[in-house]
Design goal:
alpha/beta; 6-stranded mixed β-sheet; 17 helices; 21 strands; 38% helix; disordered C terminus
Length: 497
Protein backbone atom coordinates (compact mmCIF):
# COMPACT_ATOMS: atom_id res chain seq x y z
CA UNK A 1 0.00 0.00 0.00
CA UNK A 2 1.25 3.52 -0.81
CA UNK A 3 2.84 4.93 2.35
CA UNK A 4 0.39 7.19 4.24
CA UNK A 5 3.12 9.57 5.42
CA UNK A 6 4.41 9.95 1.85
CA UNK A 7 0.87 10.70 0.67
CA UNK A 8 0.42 13.45 3.26
CA UNK A 9 3.85 14.88 2.53
CA UNK A 10 3.10 15.04 -1.19
CA UNK A 11 -0.32 16.61 -0.54
CA UNK A 12 1.22 19.46 1.44
CA UNK A 13 4.01 19.86 -1.14
CA UNK A 14 1.46 20.29 -3.92
CA UNK A 15 -0.30 22.98 -1.90
CA UNK A 16 3.00 24.74 -1.15
CA UNK A 17 3.94 24.97 -4.84
CA UNK A 18 0.46 26.35 -5.70
CA UNK A 19 -0.64 23.26 -7.61
CA UNK A 20 -4.03 23.87 -6.05
CA UNK A 21 -5.50 26.92 -4.42
CA UNK A 22 -8.72 28.30 -3.00
CA UNK A 23 -10.78 31.28 -4.14
CA UNK A 24 -13.36 31.80 -6.91
CA UNK A 25 -12.42 30.29 -10.28
CA UNK A 26 -14.28 29.72 -13.55
CA UNK A 27 -13.97 26.11 -14.66
CA UNK A 28 -13.70 24.56 -18.14
CA UNK A 29 -17.27 23.26 -17.78
CA UNK A 30 -18.48 26.85 -17.39
CA UNK A 31 -19.24 27.05 -13.65
CA UNK A 32 -17.40 28.70 -10.78
CA UNK A 33 -15.48 26.66 -8.20
CA UNK A 34 -13.97 27.51 -4.79
CA UNK A 35 -10.96 25.29 -5.49
CA UNK A 36 -8.67 25.23 -8.53
CA UNK A 37 -6.01 22.70 -9.54
CA UNK A 38 -3.13 23.56 -11.84
CA UNK A 39 -0.65 20.69 -11.82
CA UNK A 40 1.21 22.30 -14.71
CA UNK A 41 3.28 24.20 -12.16
CA UNK A 42 5.03 21.03 -10.98
CA UNK A 43 7.22 21.01 -14.11
CA UNK A 44 9.10 23.84 -12.38
CA UNK A 45 9.66 21.67 -9.30
CA UNK A 46 11.67 18.55 -10.29
CA UNK A 47 11.64 17.17 -6.75
CA UNK A 48 7.82 17.23 -6.65
CA UNK A 49 7.64 15.74 -10.16
CA UNK A 50 9.93 12.90 -9.12
CA UNK A 51 8.03 12.28 -5.89
CA UNK A 52 4.67 12.23 -7.68
CA UNK A 53 5.81 9.97 -10.53
CA UNK A 54 7.37 7.53 -8.01
CA UNK A 55 4.13 7.42 -6.08
CA UNK A 56 2.04 6.90 -9.23
CA UNK A 57 4.37 4.09 -10.32
CA UNK A 58 3.92 2.44 -6.91
CA UNK A 59 0.16 3.08 -7.06
CA UNK A 60 -0.14 1.35 -10.44
CA UNK A 61 1.69 -1.71 -9.08
CA UNK A 62 -0.51 -1.74 -6.00
CA UNK A 63 -3.69 -1.75 -8.10
CA UNK A 64 -2.48 -5.01 -9.69
CA UNK A 65 -3.58 -3.89 -13.12
CA UNK A 66 -2.62 -6.22 -15.94
CA UNK A 67 0.25 -4.16 -17.31
CA UNK A 68 1.87 -6.95 -19.31
CA UNK A 69 2.58 -5.44 -22.73
CA UNK A 70 0.61 -2.32 -21.81
CA UNK A 71 1.24 1.13 -23.28
CA UNK A 72 0.96 4.35 -21.28
CA UNK A 73 -0.77 7.45 -22.64
CA UNK A 74 -0.91 10.80 -20.83
CA UNK A 75 -3.98 12.95 -21.49
CA UNK A 76 -2.66 16.04 -23.29
CA UNK A 77 -1.09 18.16 -22.18
CA UNK A 78 -0.52 18.40 -18.42
CA UNK A 79 -0.26 14.64 -17.86
CA UNK A 80 2.38 14.13 -20.57
CA UNK A 81 5.42 14.84 -18.36
CA UNK A 82 4.07 12.48 -15.68
CA UNK A 83 3.36 9.73 -18.20
CA UNK A 84 6.89 10.13 -19.58
CA UNK A 85 8.51 9.73 -16.16
CA UNK A 86 6.32 6.72 -15.29
CA UNK A 87 7.14 5.17 -18.67
CA UNK A 88 10.86 5.38 -17.86
CA UNK A 89 10.50 4.15 -14.26
CA UNK A 90 8.21 1.27 -15.23
CA UNK A 91 10.03 0.50 -18.49
CA UNK A 92 6.72 0.62 -20.33
CA UNK A 93 6.25 2.00 -23.86
CA UNK A 94 4.39 5.27 -24.22
CA UNK A 95 1.95 6.66 -26.75
CA UNK A 96 1.19 10.33 -27.39
CA UNK A 97 -2.28 11.46 -28.36
CA UNK A 98 -2.41 14.70 -30.31
CA UNK A 99 -5.28 17.08 -29.56
CA UNK A 100 -5.68 17.49 -33.30
CA UNK A 101 -4.39 15.30 -36.14
CA UNK A 102 -1.51 16.59 -38.23
CA UNK A 103 -2.59 17.92 -41.61
CA UNK A 104 0.72 16.82 -43.16
CA UNK A 105 3.10 13.88 -43.17
CA UNK A 106 1.52 10.77 -41.65
CA UNK A 107 -1.50 12.76 -40.37
CA UNK A 108 -1.43 10.61 -37.22
CA UNK A 109 -3.55 11.35 -34.17
CA UNK A 110 -1.76 8.74 -32.01
CA UNK A 111 2.04 8.76 -32.06
CA UNK A 112 4.10 5.71 -31.10
CA UNK A 113 4.47 2.06 -32.07
CA UNK A 114 1.44 -0.14 -31.40
CA UNK A 115 -0.87 -2.73 -32.91
CA UNK A 116 -4.64 -3.03 -32.89
CA UNK A 117 -5.60 -5.07 -29.83
CA UNK A 118 -2.83 -3.66 -27.62
CA UNK A 119 -3.80 -2.43 -24.16
CA UNK A 120 -3.30 1.20 -23.14
CA UNK A 121 -3.39 2.66 -19.62
CA UNK A 122 -4.36 6.32 -19.41
CA UNK A 123 -2.58 8.78 -17.09
CA UNK A 124 -4.45 11.98 -16.14
CA UNK A 125 -3.75 14.80 -13.70
CA UNK A 126 -7.13 16.15 -12.50
CA UNK A 127 -10.64 14.89 -13.26
CA UNK A 128 -13.91 16.80 -12.91
CA UNK A 129 -16.45 15.32 -15.35
CA UNK A 130 -14.00 12.92 -17.02
CA UNK A 131 -14.56 14.44 -20.47
CA UNK A 132 -10.83 14.75 -21.24
CA UNK A 133 -10.26 11.09 -20.39
CA UNK A 134 -13.20 10.06 -22.56
CA UNK A 135 -11.90 12.12 -25.51
CA UNK A 136 -8.57 10.30 -25.22
CA UNK A 137 -10.36 6.95 -24.88
CA UNK A 138 -12.33 7.60 -28.07
CA UNK A 139 -9.19 8.42 -30.07
CA UNK A 140 -7.25 5.41 -28.72
CA UNK A 141 -10.14 3.02 -29.33
CA UNK A 142 -10.58 4.38 -32.86
CA UNK A 143 -7.06 3.05 -33.54
CA UNK A 144 -8.00 -0.40 -32.23
CA UNK A 145 -6.38 -0.01 -28.80
CA UNK A 146 -8.04 -1.52 -25.71
CA UNK A 147 -8.62 0.94 -22.86
CA UNK A 148 -10.15 -0.22 -19.57
CA UNK A 149 -8.36 1.78 -16.86
CA UNK A 150 -7.17 5.30 -16.08
CA UNK A 151 -4.76 6.42 -13.34
CA UNK A 152 -5.59 9.89 -11.99
CA UNK A 153 -3.66 12.17 -9.63
CA UNK A 154 -6.71 14.00 -8.24
CA UNK A 155 -10.40 13.12 -8.45
CA UNK A 156 -12.50 16.22 -7.71
CA UNK A 157 -15.36 13.81 -6.84
CA UNK A 158 -17.82 15.54 -9.14
CA UNK A 159 -18.94 12.58 -11.24
CA UNK A 160 -15.84 11.73 -13.27
CA UNK A 161 -15.54 8.18 -11.92
CA UNK A 162 -19.18 7.39 -12.74
CA UNK A 163 -19.00 8.99 -16.19
CA UNK A 164 -15.89 7.03 -17.21
CA UNK A 165 -17.27 3.80 -15.69
CA UNK A 166 -20.34 4.14 -17.93
CA UNK A 167 -17.98 4.06 -20.90
CA UNK A 168 -16.10 1.00 -19.69
CA UNK A 169 -13.14 2.77 -18.07
CA UNK A 170 -12.30 2.27 -14.38
CA UNK A 171 -10.79 5.36 -12.77
CA UNK A 172 -8.17 4.89 -10.04
CA UNK A 173 -7.29 8.11 -8.19
CA UNK A 174 -4.21 8.66 -6.05
CA UNK A 175 -5.91 11.54 -4.23
CA UNK A 176 -9.51 12.61 -3.80
CA UNK A 177 -10.40 16.23 -3.15
CA UNK A 178 -11.83 15.22 0.24
CA UNK A 179 -8.54 13.58 1.24
CA UNK A 180 -6.52 16.64 0.26
CA UNK A 181 -8.82 18.93 2.21
CA UNK A 182 -8.64 16.77 5.33
CA UNK A 183 -4.84 16.52 5.09
CA UNK A 184 -4.43 20.30 4.80
CA UNK A 185 -6.88 20.84 7.67
CA UNK A 186 -4.89 18.47 9.91
CA UNK A 187 -1.70 20.29 8.92
CA UNK A 188 -3.42 23.58 9.86
CA UNK A 189 -2.79 24.96 6.37
CA UNK A 190 -6.48 25.75 5.75
CA UNK A 191 -9.52 26.58 7.91
CA UNK A 192 -12.44 24.25 8.59
CA UNK A 193 -14.75 26.79 6.95
CA UNK A 194 -12.88 26.21 3.68
CA UNK A 195 -13.38 22.45 3.96
CA UNK A 196 -17.11 22.91 4.55
CA UNK A 197 -17.47 25.37 1.64
CA UNK A 198 -15.77 23.01 -0.82
CA UNK A 199 -17.76 20.02 0.46
CA UNK A 200 -20.99 21.96 -0.12
CA UNK A 201 -19.82 22.85 -3.62
CA UNK A 202 -19.01 19.19 -4.46
CA UNK A 203 -22.45 18.10 -3.27
CA UNK A 204 -24.18 20.77 -5.36
CA UNK A 205 -22.17 20.28 -8.55
CA UNK A 206 -22.08 16.67 -9.66
CA UNK A 207 -21.41 16.80 -13.40
CA UNK A 208 -22.49 14.20 -15.93
CA UNK A 209 -20.67 13.55 -19.18
CA UNK A 210 -23.46 15.28 -21.14
CA UNK A 211 -22.87 18.53 -19.23
CA UNK A 212 -25.92 18.22 -16.93
CA UNK A 213 -25.62 18.46 -13.14
CA UNK A 214 -26.83 16.11 -10.42
CA UNK A 215 -28.09 17.88 -7.30
CA UNK A 216 -29.68 15.96 -4.41
CA UNK A 217 -30.35 13.06 -6.74
CA UNK A 218 -32.09 15.21 -9.36
CA UNK A 219 -30.73 15.88 -12.85
CA UNK A 220 -30.51 19.58 -13.68
CA UNK A 221 -29.80 20.50 -17.29
CA UNK A 222 -26.91 22.92 -17.68
CA UNK A 223 -28.70 26.01 -18.98
CA UNK A 224 -25.55 27.93 -19.84
CA UNK A 225 -26.01 29.55 -23.22
CA UNK A 226 -23.53 29.11 -26.05
CA UNK A 227 -22.24 32.63 -25.62
CA UNK A 228 -21.52 32.13 -21.90
CA UNK A 229 -19.49 28.95 -22.36
CA UNK A 230 -15.77 28.81 -23.07
CA UNK A 231 -14.49 27.38 -26.34
CA UNK A 232 -12.81 24.58 -24.36
CA UNK A 233 -16.09 23.53 -22.71
CA UNK A 234 -17.93 23.64 -26.04
CA UNK A 235 -15.40 21.36 -27.73
CA UNK A 236 -16.89 18.32 -25.99
CA UNK A 237 -20.36 19.24 -27.28
CA UNK A 238 -19.46 19.65 -30.97
CA UNK A 239 -20.73 16.84 -33.19
CA UNK A 240 -18.73 17.88 -36.25
CA UNK A 241 -15.06 16.84 -35.85
CA UNK A 242 -13.87 19.93 -37.72
CA UNK A 243 -15.86 22.14 -35.34
CA UNK A 244 -13.96 20.47 -32.50
CA UNK A 245 -10.68 21.18 -34.29
CA UNK A 246 -11.56 24.84 -34.81
CA UNK A 247 -12.73 25.37 -31.22
CA UNK A 248 -9.51 23.81 -29.91
CA UNK A 249 -7.43 25.91 -32.29
CA UNK A 250 -9.18 29.11 -31.23
CA UNK A 251 -8.73 28.33 -27.53
CA UNK A 252 -5.07 27.37 -27.94
CA UNK A 253 -4.15 30.27 -30.21
CA UNK A 254 -6.48 32.72 -28.41
CA UNK A 255 -7.98 34.14 -31.57
CA UNK A 256 -11.43 34.45 -33.18
CA UNK A 257 -10.18 36.33 -36.24
CA UNK A 258 -10.98 35.14 -39.75
CA UNK A 259 -9.25 37.04 -42.55
CA UNK A 260 -11.25 37.52 -45.75
CA UNK A 261 -8.37 37.42 -48.24
CA UNK A 262 -10.42 38.87 -51.11
CA UNK A 263 -7.49 39.62 -53.41
CA UNK A 264 -7.06 38.72 -57.08
CA UNK A 265 -3.32 37.96 -57.12
CA UNK A 266 -1.95 34.69 -55.70
CA UNK A 267 1.36 36.14 -54.52
CA UNK A 268 -0.40 38.98 -52.69
CA UNK A 269 -2.63 36.48 -50.87
CA UNK A 270 0.37 34.36 -49.85
CA UNK A 271 2.29 37.39 -48.58
CA UNK A 272 -0.76 38.52 -46.62
CA UNK A 273 -1.36 35.06 -45.18
CA UNK A 274 2.25 34.88 -44.03
CA UNK A 275 2.04 38.32 -42.40
CA UNK A 276 -1.24 37.82 -40.50
CA UNK A 277 -1.02 34.04 -40.02
CA UNK A 278 0.05 34.25 -36.36
CA UNK A 279 -3.13 36.17 -35.48
CA UNK A 280 -5.91 34.29 -37.30
CA UNK A 281 -7.81 31.04 -36.81
CA UNK A 282 -9.24 30.96 -40.31
CA UNK A 283 -8.36 32.34 -43.75
CA UNK A 284 -11.30 32.80 -46.11
CA UNK A 285 -10.83 32.82 -49.87
CA UNK A 286 -12.84 33.43 -53.04
CA UNK A 287 -10.79 31.25 -55.34
CA UNK A 288 -12.75 32.21 -58.47
CA UNK A 289 -11.53 35.82 -58.30
CA UNK A 290 -7.84 34.82 -58.21
CA UNK A 291 -6.54 35.56 -61.71
CA UNK A 292 -3.48 33.29 -61.47
CA UNK A 293 -4.93 30.46 -59.34
CA UNK A 294 -2.76 27.32 -59.56
CA UNK A 295 -1.93 24.07 -57.80
CA UNK A 296 1.33 25.63 -56.63
CA UNK A 297 -0.63 28.46 -55.00
CA UNK A 298 -2.75 25.91 -53.13
CA UNK A 299 0.31 24.00 -51.90
CA UNK A 300 1.95 27.22 -50.72
CA UNK A 301 -1.22 28.33 -48.93
CA UNK A 302 -1.55 24.97 -47.19
CA UNK A 303 2.08 25.20 -46.11
CA UNK A 304 1.45 28.60 -44.53
CA UNK A 305 -1.68 27.25 -42.80
CA UNK A 306 0.41 24.48 -41.23
CA UNK A 307 3.20 26.87 -40.31
CA UNK A 308 0.96 29.41 -38.60
CA UNK A 309 -1.77 26.99 -37.43
CA UNK A 310 -4.91 28.27 -39.14
CA UNK A 311 -7.65 26.60 -41.22
CA UNK A 312 -8.70 27.38 -44.79
CA UNK A 313 -12.27 28.20 -45.79
CA UNK A 314 -13.43 28.70 -49.37
CA UNK A 315 -16.40 31.07 -49.39
CA UNK A 316 -17.99 29.31 -52.36
CA UNK A 317 -21.59 29.57 -51.09
CA UNK A 318 -22.70 26.38 -52.83
CA UNK A 319 -26.37 26.64 -53.81
CA UNK A 320 -27.34 23.98 -56.35
CA UNK A 321 -28.69 20.44 -56.54
CA UNK A 322 -26.63 17.68 -54.94
CA UNK A 323 -25.11 16.26 -58.13
CA UNK A 324 -23.98 19.69 -59.32
CA UNK A 325 -22.42 20.81 -56.04
CA UNK A 326 -20.59 17.49 -55.75
CA UNK A 327 -18.90 18.23 -59.09
CA UNK A 328 -18.25 21.88 -58.18
CA UNK A 329 -16.71 20.77 -54.89
CA UNK A 330 -14.46 18.01 -56.19
CA UNK A 331 -13.65 18.94 -59.78
CA UNK A 332 -13.04 21.76 -62.21
CA UNK A 333 -10.12 24.14 -62.06
CA UNK A 334 -10.25 24.69 -58.30
CA UNK A 335 -10.78 21.17 -56.82
CA UNK A 336 -11.97 22.81 -53.60
CA UNK A 337 -12.46 19.59 -51.64
CA UNK A 338 -8.75 18.84 -51.96
CA UNK A 339 -7.59 21.85 -49.95
CA UNK A 340 -10.37 23.78 -48.20
CA UNK A 341 -11.04 22.60 -44.63
CA UNK A 342 -14.38 24.42 -44.68
CA UNK A 343 -16.78 25.78 -47.28
CA UNK A 344 -19.86 28.01 -47.08
CA UNK A 345 -23.21 26.66 -48.25
CA UNK A 346 -26.63 28.19 -48.91
CA UNK A 347 -29.50 26.27 -47.31
CA UNK A 348 -31.83 27.22 -50.19
CA UNK A 349 -31.60 23.87 -52.08
CA UNK A 350 -32.46 21.92 -48.92
CA UNK A 351 -30.81 18.79 -47.54
CA UNK A 352 -29.65 17.69 -51.00
CA UNK A 353 -26.87 20.29 -51.06
CA UNK A 354 -25.31 18.77 -47.95
CA UNK A 355 -25.71 15.22 -49.24
CA UNK A 356 -24.07 16.19 -52.51
CA UNK A 357 -21.06 17.80 -50.83
CA UNK A 358 -20.71 14.99 -48.31
CA UNK A 359 -20.74 12.37 -51.09
CA UNK A 360 -17.38 13.73 -52.22
CA UNK A 361 -15.79 12.68 -48.94
CA UNK A 362 -14.66 9.20 -49.97
CA UNK A 363 -12.32 6.55 -48.64
CA UNK A 364 -9.29 8.76 -49.12
CA UNK A 365 -10.78 11.73 -47.28
CA UNK A 366 -12.68 11.29 -44.00
CA UNK A 367 -15.57 13.44 -42.84
CA UNK A 368 -13.37 14.54 -39.92
CA UNK A 369 -11.17 16.48 -42.33
CA UNK A 370 -13.92 18.61 -43.94
CA UNK A 371 -16.89 20.67 -42.81
CA UNK A 372 -19.37 23.34 -43.87
CA UNK A 373 -20.84 26.61 -42.62
CA UNK A 374 -24.50 27.04 -43.55
CA UNK A 375 -25.51 30.56 -44.54
CA UNK A 376 -28.52 31.66 -42.46
CA UNK A 377 -28.22 35.46 -42.57
CA UNK A 378 -26.23 37.95 -44.64
CA UNK A 379 -24.61 41.23 -43.60
CA UNK A 380 -25.91 43.33 -46.51
CA UNK A 381 -28.80 45.80 -46.47
CA UNK A 382 -32.05 44.37 -47.85
CA UNK A 383 -30.94 40.69 -47.71
CA UNK A 384 -33.80 38.26 -48.39
CA UNK A 385 -32.72 35.83 -45.68
CA UNK A 386 -35.75 36.45 -43.49
CA UNK A 387 -36.64 34.83 -40.15
CA UNK A 388 -38.42 31.88 -41.74
CA UNK A 389 -35.41 31.13 -43.94
CA UNK A 390 -33.00 31.45 -41.00
CA UNK A 391 -35.11 29.12 -38.84
CA UNK A 392 -35.20 26.50 -41.61
CA UNK A 393 -31.43 26.79 -42.00
CA UNK A 394 -30.92 26.15 -38.30
CA UNK A 395 -33.10 23.07 -38.56
CA UNK A 396 -30.78 21.74 -41.27
CA UNK A 397 -27.75 22.54 -39.11
CA UNK A 398 -29.05 20.70 -36.05
CA UNK A 399 -30.98 17.80 -37.57
CA UNK A 400 -29.21 16.85 -40.80
CA UNK A 401 -25.58 15.72 -41.29
CA UNK A 402 -24.59 17.16 -37.93
CA UNK A 403 -21.13 15.59 -38.22
CA UNK A 404 -20.55 17.69 -41.37
CA UNK A 405 -21.99 21.07 -40.29
CA UNK A 406 -19.40 23.00 -38.26
CA UNK A 407 -21.40 26.17 -37.87
CA UNK A 408 -23.67 28.87 -39.21
CA UNK A 409 -23.04 32.22 -40.89
CA UNK A 410 -25.38 34.73 -39.28
CA UNK A 411 -25.76 38.08 -37.52
CA UNK A 412 -28.06 37.19 -34.60
CA UNK A 413 -26.92 36.09 -31.14
CA UNK A 414 -29.97 33.94 -30.40
CA UNK A 415 -30.13 32.10 -33.72
CA UNK A 416 -27.35 29.60 -32.89
CA UNK A 417 -28.37 27.96 -29.61
CA UNK A 418 -26.29 24.77 -29.72
CA UNK A 419 -22.89 25.19 -27.98
CA UNK A 420 -21.48 22.62 -30.42
CA UNK A 421 -22.01 24.91 -33.43
CA UNK A 422 -19.91 27.97 -34.22
CA UNK A 423 -21.38 31.30 -35.26
CA UNK A 424 -19.38 32.98 -38.03
CA UNK A 425 -20.20 36.65 -38.52
CA UNK A 426 -18.86 38.86 -41.33
CA UNK A 427 -18.85 42.63 -41.45
CA UNK A 428 -16.38 43.48 -38.67
CA UNK A 429 -14.44 46.72 -38.67
CA UNK A 430 -12.78 48.91 -36.06
CA UNK A 431 -15.06 51.73 -37.18
CA UNK A 432 -18.77 50.87 -37.62
CA UNK A 433 -20.71 51.98 -40.68
CA UNK A 434 -21.99 51.10 -44.18
CA UNK A 435 -19.97 51.06 -47.39
CA UNK A 436 -21.17 52.26 -50.79
CA UNK A 437 -22.48 48.81 -51.74
CA UNK A 438 -24.65 48.21 -48.70
CA UNK A 439 -22.18 46.18 -46.60
CA UNK A 440 -22.85 46.77 -42.89
CA UNK A 441 -19.94 46.93 -40.44
CA UNK A 442 -19.93 46.48 -36.65
CA UNK A 443 -17.14 46.92 -34.10
CA UNK A 444 -15.33 43.86 -32.67
CA UNK A 445 -16.98 44.39 -29.30
CA UNK A 446 -20.50 44.67 -30.71
CA UNK A 447 -20.09 41.62 -32.97
CA UNK A 448 -18.82 39.40 -30.14
CA UNK A 449 -20.85 40.57 -27.14
CA UNK A 450 -24.11 41.74 -28.71
CA UNK A 451 -24.32 39.67 -31.89
CA UNK A 452 -22.78 36.52 -30.34
CA UNK A 453 -20.09 35.81 -32.95
CA UNK A 454 -17.51 33.07 -32.32
CA UNK A 455 -15.55 33.58 -35.54
CA UNK A 456 -15.37 37.16 -36.81
CA UNK A 457 -14.61 37.95 -40.45
CA UNK A 458 -12.47 40.98 -41.25
CA UNK A 459 -11.59 41.90 -44.83
CA UNK A 460 -10.98 45.45 -45.96
CA UNK A 461 -10.19 46.57 -42.41
CA UNK A 462 -6.94 44.60 -42.74
CA UNK A 463 -6.47 44.52 -46.52
CA UNK A 464 -6.44 48.32 -46.76
CA UNK A 465 -4.02 48.74 -43.87
CA UNK A 466 -0.43 49.82 -44.49
CA UNK A 467 0.62 47.36 -41.77
CA UNK A 468 -1.67 44.30 -42.10
CA UNK A 469 0.23 42.31 -39.48
CA UNK A 470 -0.11 44.98 -36.78
CA UNK A 471 -3.75 45.65 -37.69
CA UNK A 472 -4.55 41.92 -37.51
CA UNK A 473 -2.98 41.82 -34.06
CA UNK A 474 -5.20 44.70 -32.93
CA UNK A 475 -8.32 42.94 -34.25
CA UNK A 476 -7.28 39.67 -32.60
CA UNK A 477 -6.71 41.32 -29.23
CA UNK A 478 -9.93 43.35 -29.23
CA UNK A 479 -12.01 40.34 -30.29
CA UNK A 480 -10.43 38.10 -27.66
CA UNK A 481 -10.92 40.64 -24.87
CA UNK A 482 -14.58 40.96 -25.88
CA UNK A 483 -14.91 37.15 -25.78
CA UNK A 484 -13.40 36.96 -22.29
CA UNK A 485 -15.83 39.62 -21.10
CA UNK A 486 -18.68 37.69 -22.75
CA UNK A 487 -17.94 34.49 -20.82
CA UNK A 488 -17.14 36.37 -17.61
CA UNK A 489 -13.40 35.73 -17.37
CA UNK A 490 -10.81 38.30 -16.36
CA UNK A 491 -8.35 39.10 -19.19
CA UNK A 492 -5.47 37.40 -17.40
CA UNK A 493 -7.58 34.66 -15.82
CA UNK A 494 -7.49 30.94 -16.55
CA UNK A 495 -10.20 28.62 -17.76
CA UNK A 496 -10.08 26.17 -14.88
CA UNK A 497 -9.66 22.42 -15.08
Amino acid sequence: MVCASKMKNLATKLFEVNAFKFGDFKMKVGINSPVYFDLRVIVSHPDVMDMLSDMLHEFISEKKLNTSGVHLCGVPYTALPLATLISIKANKPMLIRRKEAKKYGTKKLIEGKFNAGDVCLIIEDVVTSGSSILETVDDLRSEGLIVTDAIVVVDREQGGAQNTEERGVRMHSLFTLSYLLQTLLEAKMIEESTVKAVAKYIDACQIRSDGSFIKNGTTVVNDLSRTRMSFEARTDLAKCPLAKDLLKLMATKRTMLCLAADLTNAEEILNLADAVGPYICLLKTHCDIIADFSEQFVRSLQSLARQHNFLLMEDRKFADIGNTVAQQYSGGLYRIADWADLVTVHALPGQGVLKGLKSVIGVDRTVASRGVFLLAEMSTEGALTDEKYSTATMKMATEMDTDFVAGVVCQSKDLVASPGLLQLTPGVKLQEGVDGLGQLYDSPERVVKERGADVCVVGRGILSSKTPSETARIYRDRLWEAYLERIGVEKNGGDGN
